[in-house]
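// run 5 | inverse folding | seed 20
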């Protein structure tokens, strides 16, 4: 396992831009539906898909894609016109557990799920 200083010296990770959103208050199942639409698409096409997809996750992913693009262009000097969504995934975060009162003194559990979303953009070769 390399340290951060060693990775920087070797230039590892300089071929991509990455952005991660942790503890997003949306279920990973709902996010994955939209992520599958933009995987392996050019950056402009991905923006267009996210702009016109009527899902709650698309607004969150639009901001995250913008951040990944900025990281690639500003930090790693990649060409914006050559970028594409190389990898994107949503992992499950901690679940907030709440209760809902029911009849006769009972209670049902409500699970408010969170997710950790990651988008990686790279240059086409």
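// decoded
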């Amino acid at each position: 396992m390399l340290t951060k200083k060693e990775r920087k010296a070797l230039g590892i990770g300089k071929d991509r831009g990455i952005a991660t959103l942790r503890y997003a208050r949306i279920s990973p199942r709902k996010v994955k539906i939209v992520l599958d639409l933009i995987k392996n698409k050019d950056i402009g096409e991905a923006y267009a898909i996210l702009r016109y997809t009527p899902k709650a996750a698309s607004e969150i992913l639009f901001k995250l894609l913008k951040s990944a693009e900025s990281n690639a262009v500003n930090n790693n000097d990649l060409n914006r016109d050559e970028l594409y969504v190389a990898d994107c995934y949503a992992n499950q975060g901690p679940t907030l557990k709440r209760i809902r009162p029911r009849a006769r003194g009972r209670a049902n559990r409500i699970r408010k799920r969170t997710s950790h979303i990651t988008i990686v953009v790279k240059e086409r070769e």
